[in-house]
Task: structure prediction
Amino acid sequence: MSDDQHSLYLPCPRGLEQALREEIAEIEGCGAQPQAEHAAGLSLRGSLRDVMLLNLHTRIASRVLLRVAQGPVAHADDIYRLALRQPWAQWFDADATLRVDVTAERSPMQSLHFALLRAKDGVCDHFRLRDGRRPSVARENPQVRVHLHLDASSATLYLDTSGEALFKRGWRAAHGEAPLKENLAAGLLRLAGWTPQAALYDPFCGAGTIVIEAAQRACRIAPGLQRGFGFERLSGFDPAVWRELRAQAQAARREAPAPIVAADIDPRMVALTRDNARRAGVEQALQVRQGDALEGPTPLELAPEQSGWVLCNPPYAERIEAKGAQAEDLLPRLGDRLKQRFVGWNAALLLADLRAERSLGLKASRRHVLFNGPIECRLFTFALVAGRPPRKV
Ligand SMILES: C[S@@+](CC[C@H](N)C(=O)[O-])C[C@H]1O[C@@H](n2cnc3c(N)ncnc32)[C@H](O)[C@@H]1O
Result:
């Protein structure tokens, strides 16, 4: 496999660009070099081996796109001509099934769908002129995905080396209510500053996304071990190297160094978290309990010598109601509970209520702007120091 360097673009949830950069720097053996941070993405230079490593190990990126061409665009036909003249046969042949996707930022193109069709025509005509045959289009399970990105004046064509989006890890059996995407959950853990040496407690675990992502990281389970990737169907990616990288990832597995505890008031969510954890291979690393986040002793009071992180996305009105006897005052009561029971801990709460600090009665040390789907949120981070009296509610 050649060591040629390629321009790569890794889209990620907005607000996680720096966290993605840090994550990539920690991927063992990955030589990909960051070039620039963008809104919701990172550009890198790297080899095809790096492309495989990135797909296998990133928990935060949504895809790994490999740049094939970039050119100025004034009219949709410029996209056709750009696509027509690229050496696609280096990557796949005329018998492949193909899907083209498009994204745009300040593009003057009137119809993105038409732009997409012109890119697809260019790729297909390239093969028709060369071989007399052309790839057929498949929206579902295509063998090859080409991604077109348009900005104010240019078009970029990428090969999507991931295939299905990377947040689809292959372990999710069913969705709970308003689950986080896996890569957003992984990003929260990194943004908050949690490391696997510290205990972790999610008292509103839902389908268990946060704790499962944490447990896979703590157990050094590569997030891509349970799924396939687009590059496996592209020429140029050496299957022997891929087998070796997978084997190395499999051998890296270890036990989680600190407790990871999940709880939810809803027994169906508890069952779902257990099921997802089993499918993700982290059942042993998790303690999963049923209970009200505002009542009873905290599970981690059973291991009081440990300090760590409370990290969660509590229910919020737009998507899901709080439950339990004190649901109406959820945030004030949660704030009091954090102050009373988690002294010495850190907390990181993802909330859509931008005035949540006032409701919680806690002042955040950091606030990160993030988006849970279309909903603008903040990840509020708190150091829970001794000496704050609980507020009378
Ligand atoms: C926004 S969801 C969490 C989603 C989760 N992060 C995921 O990715 O699946 C909020 C969860 O809080 C739970 N919940 C609501 N009120 C609760 C309470 N008082 N104590 C514990 N859990 C509660 C709900 O059952 C729901 O599963």
